[in-house]
Automatic annotation (TrEMBL):
Name of the protein in question: Flavin reductase family protein
Cofactor: FMN
Gene Ontology molecular function terms on file: FMN binding; oxidoreductase activity, acting on the CH-NH group of donors, NAD or NADP as acceptor
Family: Belongs to the flavoredoxin family.
Tagged with keyword GTP-binding: no
SMART domains xref list: Flavin_Reduct
């Protein structure tokens, strides 16, 4: 048995993306964006959806660049605050004490204290009702050294990125791995022969 809950903006898991931009006079800004994810492998691209009235929207249109910063659980208070206050009325970096760092590849700041930072240049923009979807080509990813595994890639278990629960309005962290991708399903492939 299943219960229909209707059309809603719920999917699990939803990443917590803190989007970094520069505004007027190169003032750094950051916004908590829950609607986003990878949308292309080649070139590697990420999509974020924000409303037109947001300060971040204006900043992205002017500079054609943004960063996606993924906080660990340690920074849940700062991440939540970035989604509660507009950059039009507050200096979020001054309030939180976090450090904006100029991106190496794009004209946007990343957040030094957050362990995973993605630098993106805008390649496309789509209007979807009240939200605008912005596609950014990933030009670089920076990861704190302590979260790099033996293969030179980020270790999700060590990083413990924040996740957002849109149904319960709560933050979570990743749990235990269940199985290896592109491996577990091989059991069915063997039975096809």
């Amino acid at each position: 048995m299943k219960t229909s809950i209707g059309a809603k903006d719920i999917v699990f898991p939803t990443p917590v993306f803190i989007v970094g931009t520069y505004g007027e006079d190169r003032k750094p800004n950051a916004m908590n964006v829950a609607w986003g994810g990878i949308c292309s492998s080649n070139p590697p691209c990420i999509a974020i959806s924000i409303r037109r009235q947001r300060c971040t929207y204006e900043n992205i249109l002017k500079r054609r660049a943004f960063t996606v910063n993924i906080p660990s659980a340690k920074y849940v208070t700062e991440a939540d605050y970035f989604g509660m206050v507009s950059g039009k009325i507050a200096d979020k970096f001054k309030t939180t004490g976090l450090t904006p760092v100029k991106g190496d590849k794009v004209d946007a700041p990343y957040i030094q204290e957050f362990p995973f930072n993605i630098e993106c240049k805008v390649i496309d923009i789509f209007q979807i009702s009240e939200h605008t979807q912005i596609i950014g080509e990933i030009l670089d990813i920076k990861v704190n050294d302590e979260f790099i595994n033996k293969h030179g890639l980020p270790d999700i278990d060590e990083l413990k990125p924040l996740l957002f629960d849109p149904a319960g309005s709560r933050y979570h962290v990743t749990g235990n791995a269940v199985e290896h991708a592109f491996s577990a399903g091989k059991a069915f492939m063997a039975s096809e022969k």
